[in-house]
Amino acid sequence: MSTARLTQQDMTESEQRELKTLLDRARIAEGRPLTNSEINHVKKEYIDKLMAERELAAKKARALKKQKAFKPDTSATFSWSANTHTRGKR
């Protein structure tokens, strides 16, 4: 199940700040303004990391939901009232 790629508009405010910080650190490390290619490379790496984190969180949420899903009690005796229509068959 492939999800659409994240954009900066889809990021939270704190994630956008983190991206800006990463770009500033890369610019300082280079000692010059970054080229478009370098900027896009930093953005792509950060977005890939964010998407992986979000997918992992979603996977955990799905597993938890599946674990907490209603499971019928197999130890209970058969109950006619639970298996018949209360208003009759239609």
Globally, the shape reads rod-shaped
Give the rounded overall mean pLDDT: 86
Note the run of SSEs as H and E.
HHH
Point out poorly predicted stretches.
none
What is the overall number of helices? 3
**Helical content class:** 55-70%
Q: Tell me the major beta sheet.
A: none
Q: What structural category arises from helix and sheet content?
A: mainly alpha
Indicate how many domains the architecture comprises: 1
Count the E strands.
Answer: 0
Indicate the radius of gyration in whole angstroms.
25 Å
> How large a portion of the residues is in β-strands, by DSSP E?
under 5%
- Give the distance, in angstroms, between the N- and C-terminal Cα atoms: 39 Å
Explain the overall architecture.
The structure is a single chain. The protein is mainly alpha-helical. The protein has one domain (9-71). The protein contains 3 helices and no strands. It has helices at residues 13-30, 36-67, 80-83. The chain starts with 12 loop residues before the first helix and ends in a 7-residue tail after the last helix.
